Structures are given as C-alpha cells and as structure tokens.
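debug: dumping io for the single-chain case to check the tokenizer round-trip. Nothing else runs in this session.
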Amino acid sequence: MVSTTLNGYVVIQGGAATTQSAQPAPRAGAATTADAQRLADRALRDQIREQVRAHVRGAVAQDPTPEVTVTPPAPPFEPGRQFTIRGPNGEQTIIGVPPAGEIIPPQAVDISVAFFLMVAVIIIGLPLARAFARRMDRKSAAPAQVPAEVSAQLNHLSQAVDAIALEVERITEGQRFTTRLLSEQRDAARQALPSGTER
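debug: decoded output
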C-alpha cells in the first residue's frame, strides 16, 4: 500500500519501502501557495508513478511468464443466446445477444412512438382543420338564417301592416268625401241665403 503525505512520498526499491521528503523546487513566478502546492503534488505523483513502473519492470524481468489467470465475469445474457468462439491458441470468446427488450434503447422507442403519433395527428387533424375553416368561411359569407317560427311571425306582421294600410287609406278616402260634402253643402247654403244687400 502506498501512502502519501503532503510533503513526502514512498520510494519502493527491492521490496523495501522508505520515505523521503520531497521539496519542490521554487518556481519563478509562483503567485500563490496553492500553485506551489499543486506543483508539489504533481511532482510527487509523477515520482510515485515512475517508481511503481520500475518495480513492475523489475518483477517482470525476474519472472518472464507470470501466472495471471483472469476469469471474465459471466455475461448477463440468456443461456440460449450466447455464441462461443475459440481462437487458434485455445482462448474462448463468448459473444452474447442481448434480450429482445434491450436491443433498442428506451429513448429510441419513445422517439419513434412520438413520431408516429405526430404523423397520425397530422393525417387526421389536417382534413378536420380544413373542414372547420371552410365551415367558418361559409357561415361568415352566407346571410344569417332566420328560424321558421320567426319567419312566420314576420309574414303575419307584414300582412297585418298591409291590412292596416288599406284601412287607413279607406278612412282617408271617407274623410275626403265627408269634407267635400260639407264644403258643397256650405256653398249651397251660402247661395240659398239672401245676401245683406238684398234685404
């Protein structure tokens, strides 16, 4: 296990670990202590990395054929949906086909459902919108339709007004006739009466 402190690092040489203090070289123009701390951390990390690589190279040089057995985890596929491929050196590669529900991502399913719903709404909604617009145009262009009972009442009222007009005209004719008779009687009475000079 490698442990680091703020001002030190671990040196691994020949299986023995010793701790040395790392003093970062002062950098010209380092403005703050945070910059100096970051530089020190980076230098420490680089040194540890190089020492670990050197140690691994030394271990590999001592034993060129390490016994490393890597067992891959069992694939999360159904048992009947796996293919095993054997290489020329005896390695096995297992290729599995995911279950039917996992082939297409759920987001793609949502997008395709939304697309087809939108197409259906356009196909059904466009003719309905056109028919509604035409109906509105016809209503605004055509005169307003009068209900039948109102039309009947208007016809009755028109006939009554015509009858009243005829009666008023008869009354007017009677008035004229009466006025003419009275004026003729007055004129006849004037002629029948002796004038004042004749008395």
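debug: round-trip ok. Strands lie at 8-13, 16-21, 82-86, 92-96.
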